[in-house]
Amino acid sequence: MAVADDVFASYREYGREQGYDLRWLERRDVWGEGVSPRSRAGVLLQDVDHGLAAEVPDESRNLTGRPRGALPRSGVARVGNYPVRTKADVWLRNGAELYEEAVARQWSSATDIPWQAITSLPDDIERAECQLATFITEIEFVAGDVPGKWIAAITPDYYEPRMFLLSQVMDEARHLDVFRKRALVNGGGLMRRTGNPQVVGAVIDSARDFTEMSARLHISGEGAVLTLFRMGELMAYNDAEKHIYRLCAQDESRHVAFGVMHLQYLGSVETDRREEIQSYLDDAELALVTGASGQNPVARGLPSNAALAILLGGGEANVDDGYNTLLAIRQRQVKEYVQRVRVAGFGERFENGRANPMLEQYVQAH
Ligand SMILES: [Fe+2]
Ligand SMILES: [Fe+2]
User: Fold this and answer.
1) Distance in Å, CA 225 to ligand 2 centroid
2) Which candidate, 333, 327, 288, 336, places its Cα nearest to that of 309?
3) Pick among 1.10.340.30, 1.10.620.20, 3.40.50.720, 3.40.640.10: CATH of 87-365
4) What is the CA(200)–ligand 1 centre distance, in A?
5) DSSP state, 68?
6) What is the pLDDT of residues 276-289, one digit of tens each?
7) So where are the chain's domains?
């Protein structure tokens, strides 16, 4: 609440008489420019951030942790030597909106899943559920750890993507815990970790550039998992499992949207990096058609692949039917990947022969 000018002036005068330096009390140039809450959504970052606070520099020299829009102060020590301080490297349109959505849609694995709906299942189905849940727990760990390492690398001037990544880490912790609970809640237990010789997530984790990490994690890895979660109805045996897949898919769609929107921004402002981005997509496609990344639960050769076939087929006796459904899921993964890359502005690879030929067969044949 703003005080009247004469009251403000008298306070300041009183302070000076007492020997205090009250220059910090000077009013900012945005004084009096408040915002009203939206009727249902309340006060949102994208609304409240206006004027100076909304001015995002193309390059940031803010190494002192100064909040964007606050006045600098001389003599303050540097608190970070942020490697990510070029806007194009990390920015996306609507980052604040995505963050607000993440906050508004948090859920609890303890109370938002109707766990009581899980009853005794045939042994082969329960073991398959537990194997799949074990593998997903493993990849969710990577999905939290990797963006987590980048948060403190980003200058506070780009706080929107920073805070979105913080929300993603919370989401991934919840995914990790909900699948851990599923493995243990019905007496099955955690099963074998992946037998793939490659450490799960190693390629994503070795990325030295934020956009490289985002392309490998948000678009490639999480894109494939999102498609699988969206088809959760096919592999769920009760309402609890349906809820798990539905709620996780809701979160994953935000993570994938972050990657798509970031790639879209970077590709439009730094055209000299487009070829580099295409090379990340080359890798993403190789992983998609061969399972080379070791992080796609649907990929051949992983324990989760066989578990999925049992769940989708309805038991070990019908595993062949399950593998047919898995093929349909892989096809859908490819279709959704193509759609995301088009939205991100890199669709020319599907027209000019750059895309992986095996991928093109999927796209054209289905
Ligand atoms: Fe996740
Ligand atoms: Fe995710």
Assistant:
1) 8
2) 327
3) 1.10.620.20
4) 14
5) T
6) 999 999 988 988 88
7) 1-29, 87-365
